[in-house]
Amino acid sequence: MNNISIKLSELVHGRSGDKGDKINIALICHKRQWLPLLESVITPELLAKWFKGWSEGPFEVFPVYGVGAVNCLIHNVLQGGGTVSKRIDAQGKAVGQVILGVEITIDSKLAKRVGFDPSLP
Amino acid sequence: MNERTIIGGGGGFWGDQTMSPLKLLESADLDYLTIDYLAEVTMSIMHKQLNRNSEAGWATDLKDWLKLGGIGLLRSKNVKLVTNAGGANPHSCASMVLAAASEIGWNDCKVALVIGDDLGEKLSEIAASGAQFTHMYNPSLGSLLDHSSSVVSANAYLGAGAIGRSLERGADIVITGRVADASLIVGCMLHSNGWAKRAEEANLPLCGPIANWGAGNLKESLDIIAGWTVAGHLIECGAQVSGGNSTDWDDIGPLTDVGYPIAEIYPDGRCIITKPNESQGAVTSRTVAEQLLYEIGDPCAYITPDCIVDFSCILLEEIDKDRILVHGAKGIEQTATMKLSASHRDGWMVVSELVAPGPNARKRAENTDFVLRSRLKHLKGMEIHSEYLGDEALIPPALRSNTKNPSEIVIRWVATSMDKSELMEFSRAIAPLVLTGPAGICGYSARARPREILRFFPTLLDRNLVEPQVHIKMMHSWRHDLELRMPWSSDLFFIPLENMAHSEKNIRRSRFAEKILRRLDKAKECELTNE
């Protein structure tokens, strides 16, 4: 497999927020047809790795075909919920932007197949 | 009836820009103005305010913009206002609205109260009928009844039905307690599209199922409700759909005068999201997509009191600048349960901050933290959480670079305890660190005061335990005026006019009312002649 490394923000834009003791992070492809590529990268296992230390899960990833996005759901991550969390980002509003700066590894073949070209935003 | 309904979203929570609803009213031609004032925690804060003051416990920002010209604009532009500003005390909120209407001489202003969401007093009664009140997301957290002595608020999320019916009964303004955010918008659509009229004529239950109020078959009706719900979901967070909090913030341009959103909603469930001309911000398929997926769980099952919405195949089309067409939502029948949003007291919390300078900011910060913790280690019931803002505090631990070399750090402590006095001691220990800790620690302000922790406790209730209690109370500005003058007669004046003649007792009452009215007119005449 021929892998290339990109910043997540080259593939998606996003927004995050809270619901009970959960954070949801919506990652929306800049182009809808890139969704298969996004889905190949963002998995519950990856979220488990990223959020280790903040949450033991469960982690869920839901595809949203119409707008070309995935919705990441991180359970038990706000120390009981937005009203009791002691962290500065008590309602998970910042984490969605923070995540966009993370480096991810994509399969270049799949990238080519879905027409992903990181030089074109 | 193929006309679109134009609905504004004047705010996203109690704390959003106070005057945004007024600006939206001024700069757009709306049929309805909706404002969601309630976030998850707002109800518990409002209940605490109500406990201290029987006139408080509602979103007082409403008063500020209504009195600064808002009430006059609602009247002159013939816009109906629908808001959950009533919070924990819809009666006091409505009294204020009626007083504001009276002040500008709007004597036939009709305000509808939608009540029945507040179940705080009825928990044991409902429990007796078999409700378990188990935590909705995490059953291991037990039942709300385990905390019954510390419950601050317990409100059911009501749907759109009673709002539609209030408007159908002639309300100019609808004030509610805990109605689900998007349902405010759906309620307007039930009215403007004749669904509420049909329900009213057939005397169907106030809360629905509203899918039975539609003209077509059930499946069509559900898809329409789903579409309206999506429109509501998109505008209920105010400017978050029109440029605020957008990943594209740097390209969108100044957000100083960001326009609040407008939904042009069609009878078939489609909508166009836009914003006032000349306003700043942007409505693009990107800003709309971000808001569409904001604070949702499974996109195939977004649950509201009105229906379950499948977001997965919704399409967004840019039909013009700042105009996004939204369609493709699918609806599934409402759940048998309703969400009850409760909260209970759970100890105390206090937050303090100090700043550690560089070089070696991280080392200074950690040393300061060590000194503080060592000095307070005799406080056995207290837990301290430390964060180093400016040094990757917002980044999940596994993703941090851990270079630990920021030029300065804000040390932020959050201490919690069931014993408030422990936290007072914690607060007293912060300032001394400036003189007795590592060099250069600064940024001290006043001693922080502990606040009570309100733990949010969502649970599910059988719909049939909630909906029969929901009712509408119509209030009229002229009667309200009388009530202010003669508080002793308040019951009398809240009898809806249309009900007055229905019983002997009410006939007697209405005669009595006429008598008082005549006396009042006389009194008014006297006042005028004496001036």
Describe the structure.
Chain A has 121 residues and is of the alpha+beta class. Helix content of chain A is 24%, strand content 31%. In chain A, the strands form two sheets. Chain A has a four-stranded antiparallel sheet. A two-stranded antiparallel ribbon of chain A has the order 1-6. Chain A has one domain. With 531 residues, chain B is of the alpha+beta class. Chain B folds into three domains: 5-117 and 157-335, no CATH class; 341-458, Alpha-Beta Plaits (2-Layer Sandwich), CATH 3.30.70; 495-530, no CATH class. Chain B is built from 19 helices and 18 strands. Chain B has helices at residues 20-27, 42-52, 61-76, 90-103, 123-128, 161-168, 181-192, 195-201, 218-235, 249-252, 285-292, 361-375, 420-428, 432-436, 463-466, 477-485, 490-493, 497-500, 504-530; strands at residues 5-9, 32-35, 80-83, 110-115, 151-156, 173-176, 262-265, 271-274, 302-303, 308-310, 315-320, 323-327, 330-332, 337-357, 383-389, 408-417, 451-462, 471-476. In chain B, the strands form three sheets. A ten-stranded mixed sheet of chain B has the order 11-12-8-7-1-2-3-6-4-18, sandwiched between helices. In chain B, strands 5, 14, 15, 16 and 17 form a five-stranded antiparallel sheet that branches. Chain B has a three-stranded antiparallel sheet with strand order 9-10-13. In chain B, α1 (20-27) links the parallel β1 and β2 (32-35). In chain B, α6 crosses α7. The chains are: A alpha+beta (121), B alpha+beta (531). Chains A and B meet through β2, β3, β4, β5 and α4 of A and α11, β14, β15, β16 and β17 of B.
